[in-house]
Amino acid sequence: RLLNPQGGPDRYRVAEGRVTQLDLSGQPITGALAERYVLSKLASPAPDPQLIAGGREWRLVELMGQPVAAGAGGRRPSLVVSAEGRSVSGFAGCNSYGGALTLGEPQRLRFGPLAATLRACAEGMALEQQFLQVLSQADGYHAEAGRLQLLRARMAPLARFELAQP
User: Fold this and answer.
1) Beta strands in 41-146 (DSSP E)
2) What's this model's pTM, rounded to 2 decimal places?
């Protein structure tokens, strides 16, 4: 039930892939126009895994809902998916990393195992640890128009990236 100060319809039935408006007494609307009171989820086209692959660099702009500024040397953590989409590499904030990547349908992915160099830095270590943890947790992605989001359980983005300019 929705709280509607305008006095309009406020009752809906939510089901898998659809929302149905109910009449003022809370019953399903019937009759010739009943289908006009149903919102159904549309199937989205299958994403092209090549949107994130191809050896292009994605630069981190947000991690766990917080903006990420460039660190020492003006570098941001990054992600580069190989042309065939089977491996990943990049800069984590202090160290370089690389490892396996599995891309699946629909918009699923899995990182790992990942390996990183062991350089110690005065700055960037906390960000690096959080970034690598997010990569290990991510199980989905959404990519469009030069933007990439890594997701867990199709919920709020864990990380947001922008395509680096060549």
Assistant:
1) 57-63, 66-67, 78-81, 87-91, 96-104, 108-116, 140-144
2) 0.69
